[in-house]
Each structure stands twice: as C-alpha cells, then as structure tokens.
Amino acid sequence: MADTRKSKNDEAYVCVGMITAPHGVRGAVRVKSYTVDPDNLVGYGPLFDAKGRVKYKLSPVGHVRDQLIAKIEGVDDRDAAERLRGTKLHVPRAALPDTVEEDEFYLADLVGLKAHHIDGSIFGTVRGVADFGAGDVIEVALEEAKNKVVVLPFTKEVVPEVILSERKMVVNPPEGLLQDEDGPGNRSRRPNKSRKDSQADRDSDAVTADAVGAENATGSGKEA
Questions:
Q1: So what family is this one in (predicted)?
Q2: Which of 167, 52, 152, 149 is nearest to 109 (CA)?
Q3: What phi and psi values does residue 60 have, to the nearest 5 degrees?
Q4: pLDDT tens per residue, range 70-83
Q5: Which member of 14, 46, 152, 165 has the lowest number of beta carbons within 10 Å of its beta carbon?
Q6: Are residues 120 and 179 in the same domain?
C-alpha cells in the first residue's frame, strides 16, 4: 500500500519500505522494500519516519529471500534493532524520479483525488490505496454519504481514467456496490481518535499509500 504523509513543513513523504525484524546480533535489520529493485531503497539517501523528523541512514550488507539486510547508523546491537521492528521508512516525494509516460503515476499520487462517476457526478474522494494480497484497491470516501467509505479494485475496468493534472479519476463502481449498506466493500469510516502519527498507523488506516508507498501498481501505476 502506498502511505503519503506530510511533515510539519508540508513536505510529502512516501513509504518505500518497512523494517521487519532484526538480523543477527550486531544491529543489522531485515527490510521489506516496496521499490522495484530492493537495492533502490538506499539510493534515495537518508530515509525518514512518517513526519520527516527521525532520519535513518542505511548501509546494505546482504539479502535474505526477498528482503534487504542493512545496517542503520547508530544501531549497534540486536536490542536496538528489535525496537525498530515494524518501522516504516519514508522518502520525500520530491526524491522519487519523475514519471515518463503521460499515463504513468505513483499510487501515492492517487490519494486526495476526486473520484467522478462515469455518469459525470461526483462519487467521492480517494482517501487511501492498499494491497491486501489480491491486487491494489482504493478507498473512497463517498460524497453523499457522510462517514461512508467504499473499497474499489484498482483495475482498468473500475478506474478507466486517472487525470492527475486535474486531480481527478473516473470510476465505474461494480453494480450493486452501494445497495447493501453492510455489504462487502462498504463500511463506515471510524471517527478520528487522538493518537500518535506513528509508522504503524498506515496499517490500521489502510492507506493511504500504510500508499503511498511507492508500492506495486496495477495497470498504468508506477513503482519507485
């Protein structure tokens, strides 16, 4: 999923990876990268927490399965590495390379777009992008139903057009999606709670690129 957040100075940060576990006893960690090539993760320079306040300088030392093994500056033992388990790693949105093709985009760029129904009406606003294992989905807060969020598969059939220059997309929701108030893909939005804006928030918020990391995209979406 792609997680996009803004720091205190309003600079957007994109999630590009997550520390999954310590590795060994000398402070190394395993990192799940959301980039096309896992090694690209360290090519952006220092990585940050979601707010851009805590900096992590990674040095790759190897690979295990599909994960990167890295040392982090200032992390010298397993206990310190263990405390970083689950930490999401971010880069400034500006650090990501520009897209080349007109119909290319990062999933992170979808968050905040207005969703227009194919009939021309305003359907809602994209509040998140996620991948639960069956392909990318977008969460849309409905325009006419307060506190209601629907989940749409991010496919060409359901999202036939994305127009970033106009900050909008066109959606063709599956028939019957809104008929059953309690049906699948249709749920109430939980009221906001006071909480720390931590890395783990993305998982519970299902966003919102927890998209934007620059994560795997479907169709014309682009990876980091």
A1: Belongs to the RimM family.
A2: 167
A3: -70, 140
A4: 999 999 999 999 99
A5: 165
A6: yes
